Amino acid sequence: MTIDADVRPGRTVPPHPRRPPGEAPVLGRASALWASLPRELARVFRPHADALTRVILAEIQRAVPEYARPLEGPFGEVIVRGVREAVGQCLDNLGNPAVNQENWIGVFRHLGRIEYSEGRPLDQIQTAYRVGGLAAWRYIAKVGKARGLPSDLLYVGAEAVLAYVDEISALSVQGYRAAQARAAGTRARQRRQLLGLVLSEPAPAPQAVEGLAGAAGWPVPDRVVAMALEPRRDQHRLPTPALPAEVLADLEGPQPCLLAAAPPEDLQAALRGWRVAVGPRVPLAEAAVSLRWARRAMELSVREILPRTPVLHADDHLATLWLLADEFLIGQLREKCLAPLDGLTDKQRTRLRQTLLAWLQSSGSAPEMAERLGVHPQTVRYRMRRIEELFGDRLNDPEHRLRLEIALRAAELLTPAVS
Question: Which domain holds residue 379?
Answer without folding.
Answer: 327-418
